[in-house]
């Protein structure tokens, strides 16, 4: 049992806690697409009850991260190349709308915090800190969506992001991708600070499309090895 699982077991986990733990295992590639999620193993690792573990599976299935089959149980769900493309297209539209609305609606404090997170991400490139970059990037996108004032879109983007968030995660936030993301963020921030909602929307759409393009390149490289 790893440290995170031990802490979870001691705390008497809820189904949401267990779902968060499984999601983290998938993101870190400890659980991979196609791998079965054995109830008894997860109960032992997390200290959760059978009911809570099954409820966690249902939560993750609703997000598209886990597949539940009759007589076979739960397994980590993969995503086809075409499905990933469609997910990114939807995200580009939705997050573009949020960037536009943030430009129009966000208060001064949210704008300052968004700019500060963008600067911290730039520092991650120089210090080669991909895990920290990933955490800050998640905060940056969440803040932008919250500042846009559209909780429905925020929830939709979370659901769209989860099924592909674990794909090649260890190599996604490195090198060229970090530098490209930082440059994208600068363009989005420039548009927001200039009060140009159309430019912010367009820059965010390009940013999400860049993420899909980079992921596609990684997948092709892996399949060709």
UniProtKB/TrEMBL annotation:
Residue spans crossing the bilayer: none
Molecular function as annotated in GO: DNA binding; DNA-binding transcription factor activity
InterPro entries: GntR_C (IPR011711), TF_FadR/GntR_C (IPR008920), Tscrpt_reg_HTH_GntR (IPR000524), WH-like_DNA-bd_sf (IPR036388), WH_DNA-bd_sf (IPR036390)
Protein origin, superkingdom: Bacteria
Alphabetic keyword roster: DNA-binding, Transcription, Transcription regulation
PROSITE patterns: HTH_GNTR (PS50949)
SUPFAM superfamilies: GntR ligand-binding domain-like (SSF48008), Winged helix' DNA-binding domain (SSF46785)
Domain annotation HTH gntR-type: ranges: 12-79
Protein name (Swiss-Prot/TrEMBL): FCD domain-containing protein
